[in-house]
Design brief:
The protein folds into two domains: about 70 residues, Beta-grasp domain (Ubiquitin-like (UB roll)); about 70 residues, Orthogonal Bundle (DNA polymerase, domain 1). The chain is built from seven helices and five strands; from the N terminus they run E-E-H-E-E-H-E-H-H-H-H-H. It has a five-stranded mixed beta sheet with strand order 2-1-5-3-4.
């Protein structure tokens, strides 16, 4: 049995240690904000916060999740700082199809938690593991700048 904290709640899961965290989150816990994109850790659609760090859940075997603390976009939505990020992404129209959005928002949160006042290069670096095929990055960078300007309890 694998036990971990998921979005603030202690949970357990039984299955193969080699099962991907991505699949368990989507199929067993029904957390569909975690998307399956490239299956290689290149696109960021499967991003989660894993023990306080942004991580690609498609690369994490369940054995590594034992004892971990994991937050998905569904968990972030419960935090006050999500309101800041939500407004910041809406204002410059930094969202189109929405496939990359959960990963982008988690990347922005991770960056702002470490550096509440990043410059543009730091923002681009913080988002670099996440791909967007619709919006382009200008609006997304602007969204992170707005969130940083508004501030939040990251």
């Amino acid at each position: 049995m694998i036990e971990f904290v998921l979005n603030g709640e202690k949970v357990s899961w039984e299955g193969p240690d080699t099962e991907r965290l991505l699949d368990v989150l989507r199929e067993d816990f029904r957390l569909t904000g975690v998307k399956c994109g490239c299956k290689e850790g290149e696109c960021g659609a499967c991003s989660v916060i894993f023990d306080g760090e942004l991580a690609n859940s498609c690369l994490i075997p369940m054995a590594k999740a034992d004892g971990a603390e994991i937050m998905t976009i569904e968990g972030l939505r419960e935090l006050d700082c999500f309101r800041v990020l939500d407004r910041a992404f809406a204002e410059p129209a930094a969202v189109q199809c929405g496939f990359c959005t959960p990963g982008m928002v988690l990347a922005a949160y991770s960056l702002l938690k470490k550096n509440p006042h990043p410059d543009e290069n730091e923002i681009r670096d913080g988002l670099s593991g996440n791909l967007c095929r619709c919006t382009g990055y200008r609006a997304i960078v602007e969204a992170v700048k707005l969130a940083a300007k508004e501030g939040g309890k990251w």
